[in-house]
Amino acid sequence: QKEVEQDPGPLSVPEGAIVSLNCTYSNSAFQYFMWYRQYSRKGPELLMYTYSSGNKEDGRFTAQVDKSSKYISLFIRDSQPSDSATYLCAMSAFDTGRRALTFGSGTRLQVQP
Amino acid sequence: GAVVSQHPSWVICKSGTSVKIECRSLDFQATTMFWYRQFPKQSLMLMATSNEGSKATYEQGVEKDKFLINHASLTLSTLTVTSAHPEDSSFYICSATSSYNLYSGEQFFGPGTRLTVL
Fold first, then answer.
1. A100 vs B46: CB contact, 8 Å cut-off?
2. Is A61 on the interface with B (CB under 8 A)?
3. Which residue of A has its CA nearest to B48?
4. Tell me: the pLDDT tens digits for A89-113?
5. Looking at the complex, does the CB of residue A100 fall below 8 Å from at least one CB of chain B?
6. Burial zone of A110 (CB within 10 Å; 0-12 exposed, 13-18 middle, 19+ buried)
7. Which strands, in side-by-side order, build the sheet including A61-66?
8. Residue-wise pLDDT tens digits, B9-49
9. CA angle B105, B107, B111 (to 5 degrees)
């Protein structure tokens, strides 16, 4: 079983729709949670960063973390064709001393105009 | 802020040659840099972690003699693929973190280098 599970998609939605992207994880030591957006043939771009449980909002993006369920989400409101990309969840633990991120496999999102 | 560059953005080489990829943090000091490879439609696979002035720590299954990593300064790390073969063709991405993000794990990624070995 992978440490981080993410549905690879593709997820196709019409422009303006609310998009929900999710990841589950098994390592209870994870405390820092990130969402990256990656366009084709480009490096990942940090979108959202959350520490521990709770919500964080930035413009059209909302990140939620539920540590009790080991479940994180990214919501995109009023989705645009420019949001079409692969979204990667990533997480890290504080106590292990290992600074590397553990990534999900990524969800490919297509927003149809 | 937190900009990371990579050079070259793409490279084509003949089998058996060596290729060097540079990763630079442009506006911050990168105490730790990471090297990933990514195959089409797959996620990032961590290859190694390097701290400035120290030897890199390689992930299991990554050949340290084939993928040479040097992190000689706080703004530059290099990955050299030695004696490249077609199976080394991939997208190589570096990332960096500063002392400010030391414990959170927040990383800033370069744009990637596409390597094609003929």
1. yes
2. no
3. A100
4. 999 886 555 567 889 999 999 999 9
5. yes
6. middle
7. A4-6, A19-25, A71-76, A61-66, A54-58
8. 999 999 999 999 999 999 888 888 999 999 887 888 899 99
9. 160
